[in-house]
Amino acid sequence: MTDRFSFNLKHTDGRARTGVISTTRGEIRTPAFMPVGTAATVKAMMPESVAATGADILLGNTYHLMLRPTAERIANLGGLHKFMNWDKPILTDSGGFQVMSLSDLRKMSEKGVQFQSHIDGSKHFLSPERSMEIQKLLGSDIVMCFDECPALPADRTRLNESMQMSMRWAARSKDAFGDRPSHALFGIQQGGLEQDLREESANALTEIGFDGYAVGGLAVGEGQEAMFGCLDFAPEQLPTDKPRYLMGVGKPDDIVGAVKRGIDMMDCVLPSRSGRTGQVFTRNGVVNIKNARHADDPRPLDEKCTCPACSKYSRAYLHHVFRSQEMISGMLLTWHNLHYFQEIMQGMRDAIAAGTFAAWEADFHAGRANGDIEQL
Ligand SMILES: [Zn+2]
């Protein structure tokens, strides 16, 4: 255990990196995938089950928690870790992205964003200062700067103005965060798909100085090709000795492509959300458990997977409980998906350490190209 937040970059292979982030609540092996615990729970999973999949850290959403049950209530109950029974590290987002995507009647100014709750219409205000206060109340180990994330496509003038404001908000976030060496504050690079705006943003953030740097403003509708195009330059504009976090990504092949381009951390609701809708990610690509072809199939989802869904149940059972809308369906499929995502991360960490990332990646794509096993 350590009393300071730190990052130890251990190996690189091409642009891919592996290392360890040390926090007071434990180590985070990178590249790391963070399951999303929106409302103080990773839906359909017990916290110990999330840890059993191999997750070292999870993400909590400031926007959701500030509205319900409120950050003040969670603080009074001992903080988010205690509240949700998760003693490993937690990263919280700033609330900015979800204010833009979920709330009603937003009014944005240099000061911050006034908005109405999507739950009950109540009025709230978020600013860099208020976001830092909320994330401190929650007890988050990794705090994100409050920023604005414009939807893509957006014109260059809009992207530039938005990025400039986010940089001013980043400086305010740093001031409000204060001196807390056992906790980390990450800056967020913006600038859309524009290389020079990204560069300017990276320089502004580096000047302020953060414990880690996120590539923000991607995975907002630009498509994989455009995202990879941006990741061909964006991570390398950020300091090499700090963790780089790509927010809101993604599908398995997005994750692999991001790590290949120098990303260390990611988060996404996809494995848990898909688990609840019957979509399963496997070594052989996507399986839709609701399809009738599984109804009589006694084989596991993936014979090589050691998760409970694959080691103890048949495709026929998983199909049945999904069709019957039984709760165990979401539980098992979420577990499998999270397990599979963590297996990808472990595979990449091992391959980068061994200098065999290219071979690992070729194998990953070959498995997916095979497609699902033949129908019985
Ligand atoms: Zn499995």
From TrEMBL:
Keyword Heme belongs to the record: no
Catalytic reaction annotation: 7-aminomethyl-7-carbaguanine + guanosine(34) in tRNA = 7-aminomethyl-7-carbaguanosine(34) in tRNA + guanine
Keywords: Glycosyltransferase, Metal-binding, Queuosine biosynthesis, Transferase, tRNA processing, Zinc
Region ranges (RNA binding): 248-254
Biological source species: Yoonia ponticola
Name under which the protein is recorded: Queuine tRNA-ribosyltransferase
Highest taxon in the source lineage: Bacteria
GO cellular component: cytosol
